[in-house]
Specification:
The radius of gyration is 16 Å and the shape is globular. α1 links the parallel β1 and β2. Helix content is 32%, strand content 14%. It has a single domain, classed as Rossmann fold (3-Layer(aba) Sandwich), CATH 3.40.50. The protein is α/β, with parallel strands linked by helices and 230 residues long.
Length: 230
């Protein structure tokens, strides 16, 4: 049975500051809660492997489902302490790759060639590329074998400029998701700020913000069930 590869950040601070960032906990935990219910297993990878910091602000949004995942030994050990390095991952083990968010990913996802190669290989093997919120950063620079951006012409979404403003991070982020996506000829779609919104374009599924995690997971699981991949 193939698994989902969950990608998390190693970045602990906003560049040039002492302000903490990291993985937005719910963007991993809520996704796991959904896929585990359907018997889908996961592995965890990060650009450097090893330790994944948690964005302290994400700890304000913990419900019981998130806490149940957070306290699992597997998640603590393999999802936060000992994530795999990209070189340790066998692309053939996975039916999907899921890029989680948290502002940290804006620094270590976009230019990681190893993660791009993994994502493209999974996609070319009829697999799925998923992201939520700032996780869109992992999709921006993936190119197909002809050298074109994979998201070119695709409908995708991610954390919006309005949401950055409301989060107070306008002057701290290295780019804006919509601008970066449109520069690569993607069709960036968005809904009201901080409301759940996810969309699928072929085998690319993206969610707008932290409240869209379960919507992303559900769209993916609908695809899995319809094509009986597991």
């Amino acid at each position: 049975m193939k698994k989902v590869l969950v990608v998390e950040t190693n970045i602990q601070k906003y560049a040039g500051t002492n302000e903490a960032t990291g993985l937005w906990l719910g963007e991993s935990a809520e996704f796991l809660d959904e896929v585990y219910q359907q018997g889908v297993d996961v592995d965890f990878v990060s650009p450097l492997g090893g330790f994944v910091p948690l964005d302290p602000r994400s700890m304000k949004y913990i419900d019981q489902a998130i806490m149940n995942i957070y306290l699992e030994e597997n998640f603590i050990q393999n999802g936060l302490i000992q994530t795999k390095k990209p070189a340790e991952v066998n692309q053939n083990d996975y039916h999907a790759i899921y890029f989680t968010g948290g502002h940290g990913v804006m620094w270590d996802f976009p230019d990681n060639k190893e993660l791009q190669e993994l994502a493209l290989a999974i996609y070319e093997n009829n697999g799925y590329i998923l992201s939520v919120c700032h996780g869109i950063a992992g999709l921006l620079n993936i190119k197909d074998r002809e050298g074109s951006f994979l998201i070119s012409g695709k409908k995708i979404t991610g954390f919006t400029k309005t949401e950055e403003f409301l989060a107070g991070k306008m002057n701290k982020v290295p780019f804006f998701n919509q601008t970066a996506a449109e520069e690569r000829n993607a069709q960036f779609k968005k809904r009201r700020f901080y409301k759940a919104f996810a969309l699928k374009d072929g085998r690319i599924i993206t969610g707008q913000n932290p409240f869209s995690v379960r919507a992303v997971a559900k769209l993916y699981l609908e695809e899995v069930q319809s094509c009986k991949q597991f």
